[in-house]
């Protein structure tokens, strides 16, 4: 079982969000710094999303979540479909997570 608590997001999506946070805040990073920061921040964002969304799964959908975790070939589309149907106000929850993460990144980059 390779899935983790945040198997629902492709690395590409997390990286795109991190790069958008950099662009939105006018953080200009060299390619070298991007190679250093983007993978780490992407992993942190994925973890935050997973940990937050898990708490929003209704009890009657937990078995479906567990089955998806155990599914070795679960795709990003499988996860996306699950999250959007299982989590009330999924888009709003995602916006909150990404906004909070963006604030954390801004605070760290301002140091």
List keywords for this structure.
111 residues, mainly alpha, 5 helices, 70% helix
Structural notes for this entry:
There is one protein chain. With 111 residues, the protein is mainly alpha-helical. The protein has one domain (11-104). It is built from 5 helices and no strands.
List the helices and strands and how they pair.
Elements: H1 11-24, H2 31-54, H3 62-70, H4 76-86, H5 90-109
Helix pairs in contact: 1-2, 2-5
Structure in a nutshell:
By secondary structure, the protein is an all-alpha fold. It has 5 helices and no strands.
Output the number of helix runs.
Answer: 5
Mean pLDDT: 88
Q: Residue share in helices?
A: over 70%
Query: Roughly how many Å apart are the termini?
Result: 39 Å
**Overall number of structural domains:** 1
Strand content: under 5%
Structural class: mainly alpha
Give the strand tally: 0
From the spread of the alpha carbons, the general shape counts as elongated
Radius of gyration (Å): 15 Å
SSE succession = HHHHH
Q: Which stretches of 5+ consecutive residues score pLDDT under 50?
A: 1-6
Biggest β-sheet strands, sense, barrel: none
């Amino acid at each position: 079982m390779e899935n983790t608590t945040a198997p629902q997001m492709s690395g590409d999506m997390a990286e795109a969000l991190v790069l958008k946070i950099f662009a939105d805040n006018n953080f200009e990073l060299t390619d070298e710094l991007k190679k250093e920061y983007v993978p780490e921040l992407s992993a942190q964002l994925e973890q935050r999303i997973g940990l937050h969304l898990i708490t929003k799964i209704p009890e009657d959908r937990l078995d479906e979540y567990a089955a998806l975790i155990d599914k070795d070939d679960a795709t990003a589309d499988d996860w996306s479909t699950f999250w959007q149907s299982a989590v009330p106000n999924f888009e709003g929850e995602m916006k909150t997570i990404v906004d909070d993460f963006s604030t954390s990144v801004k605070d760290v980059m301002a140091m």
